[in-house]
Structures are given as structure tokens and as C-alpha cells.
Amino acid sequence: MDKKNIVTFFIFTLLSICAIAQEKLNWVDFADVTFKSEYNALYKANYLVPTFGETIKSYTGKQIKIKGYFLDLSGDGEMLLLSQNPMAACYFCGGSGPESIIEVMFKEKPNFKTDQVIEVVGTLKLNDEDVEHCNYILENASGVLVD
């Protein structure tokens, strides 16, 4: 094999691995969860505690890709979310449930603006214990603007 063919083979191999390494999910996949209200003694309030379904649990620790609306809840980049809905209809505004948001831990602080449609790739973590974080978390994430 000449040098050009080796480089071409290497590039196609890497692209194939990247395509296989991530699963493209949609918001229906994240609806594979039920909630029950439980009292949290530390915060002296009731919180919705998730019970994740087998389908969404099968993606735990895997790299996934999903498209949604970017939300900067804090306004300073401290609490970044991907939402099924724009800010005016998001979970915190009463427009949907906690299964419609994903907390995103970006590798690098993004330049997206609230309500821009983005596609995010990251490692899925399910959270059913820490009420200070969302039930779905994408770690080591990166994103691209779609619209």
C-alpha cells in the first residue's frame, strides 16, 4: 500500500469508529422513566425521584447524541441544559416534565445562546440521588449549532 492509501484507510477507519461509538437518541428515549414524590429531609421538601426504564439504562456510560434547545439557566454558564422545548415552555417554566431536560457538562464553555437548536454529544449519566443536578447528565460533552 502506498502512503496515500494508508492515510485514506486510517481516516475512514476513524470515522467509522466515531459513527459507531455514539448512539443518536431522541426525546422519546428519555421519556423511559417514571417519577414518585419523596420527601428530602436535607432540603425539607418533596422532590420527584426517577425510576429509569431498561431502555434508557442501557445507554448509561455510553456516548450519545441528541438535538434540542440550549438553555443557560444561570445566565453565566454555570447551569447549562439541553431541553426538548425552548425556554418559554421548558420544565422550569411548567411546560413539561423533568425527563425533557438534560444537564450538560461541556468540555469547553460553549458560545451558544439560549433557545438556539444544537446537537450535543456526550457520555450519559443517570442521576436518581443528587437533587442539585438533573436526572439526565451528559458529561465530557461537545455541541454544534443546528439552526
Average of per-residue pLDDT values = 86
Q: Order of strands in the sheet with the most strands? A: 4-5-6-8-7
| Whole-number tally of structural domains | 1
What's the CATH class label? Mainly Beta
> How far apart are the termini?
42 Å
By CATH's scheme, which homologous superfamily applies? Protein of unknown function (DUF3299)
Fill in the CATH topology: OB fold (Dihydrolipoamide Acetyltransferase, E2P)
Q: Mind telling me which CATH architecture this is?
A: Beta Barrel
Shape: globular
Largest sheet: 5 strands, mixed, barrel
Q: What does it look like?
A:
18% of the residues lie in helices and 40% in strands. The protein has a single domain (22-145), classed as OB fold (Dihydrolipoamide Acetyltransferase, E2P), CATH 2.40.50. With 147 residues, the protein is an alpha+beta fold. Residues 5-20 have low confidence and may be disordered. A hairpin with a 4-residue loop joins strand 2 (33-40) and strand 3. It is built from three helices and eight strands; from the N terminus they run H-E-H-E-E-H-E-E-E-E-E. It starts with a helix and ends with a strand.
Helices and strands in order:
Elements: H1 3-21, E1 22-24, H2 27-30, E2 33-40, E3 45-52, H3 54-57, E4 63-72, E5 80-83, E6 101-106, E7 117-126, E8 136-145
Parallel strand pairs: 1-4, 6-8
Antiparallel strand pairs: 2-3, 4-5, 4-7, 5-6, 7-8
Quick overview:
With 147 residues, the chain is of the alpha+beta class.
